[in-house]
Amino acid sequence: MESILAFIKSVNSFLWDGPMLVLLLFTHLYFTFHLKFIQKDIKKAIKLSVSTDSDHCGNASSFSTLTTTLAATLGTGNIVGISTAIALGGPGAVFWCWITGIFGMATTYAECYLGMKYRQKKADGTYVGGPMYALEYGLHNKPLAVVFSVATLLAAFGMGCSTQARSITDATSHIGLSPYISGILTAFVIGLVIVGGVKSIQKICMTLVPAMGAFYILACIIILFLNIKYLPDAIKVIFTSAFMPKAIAGGMIGGSLKTAARYGISRGLFTNEAGLGSAAIAASDSHTCNIKNQSLVSMSATFWDTVVMCAITGLVIISTILKSPASIEGLSMSELTNAAFGQIPHVGVKLLNIALIAFAAATLIGWSYFGEKAVEYLIGPKGLSIYRLIYILMIFFGSVMTLDLVWESADLINALMAIPNLIVLLLLRKEVKH
Asked: What pTM did the predictor assign?
């Protein structure tokens, strides 16, 4: 196991210390300028996401596709991911994560636009789409479409499943529940939803996502109010650390520009998935015929996920550390948020654990949907039953895996999924309109 982990770390070190950072940032910046800073239309995007108007051209409402996307992205990356990014890359990682979200909104729009443009109508009248269909029917590259679909399937088992299951295990360990019992219970509960199929998944997401998002933001606002005197310094250290050429010390004290960017961007991709193409899979299920409007709706998911949620989590963690440096002593790199929530008397850490479980459960449900679409593309509906069974088993195995292996595997699979998606985005870039 140690040799496997070492190999994955070496591959990630190569990919994320240079090529992936450059490719993602270039794509984000290109589409930001190509689409004339489409981020300015976020108000319209939010309004469209809750609109009841529809031209009924697909399978699901725009709000349903948005909540399915958010269910997959509003996961433990917003809590555990930001915590590990800060621990490994310093406070500056928050800045790079935030930047990834702002400019990544344009990439999300572009990938959803192409995914919907090349979506295909099935015999039963429903639609399927996403990067694999843009690769096959737009770029006429079936092998690359297969690579993307296989990577999506691996991501569903890894980032969408194992990391979330492990986070639930960590949260339930505080009440003395063993990883094995936690894994069995999680697999059973999530399995009941997954077996219900796409409609069941969408219904749960539409209920769970708005409630858990509001709950978490409210808790963070309370903590920021408690830390209000330290907010200016927290903002200052985030921006100064983001451009520090060399680390003045390891870990939380301050990372270098390279480490801040490496962990900020990779965790940013983990949380908002801009550049992965997953949002395009959900968008293609929408029943609107208006490609531009649905792409705007999907773009708003990146806004909520990273520009709002990750930024507020980063401020909560860093302001708490500035207020009480001793509060993080003895905590692992994934537990920095615990110190912040511990400021809410008696119930703070319990509230955080509830939030972690809810976020992770939503992501498990949302990513099972993306995995289903990958399987459907690769071998058709006949493979869905076997996929669901394997996915449920992976929830259990993820619950007992080591945290290091879980996160490093997620970074590697993210890269494998992002590369073919970014290729089709850049080669078909002129087809994306605003």
From this structure: 0.86
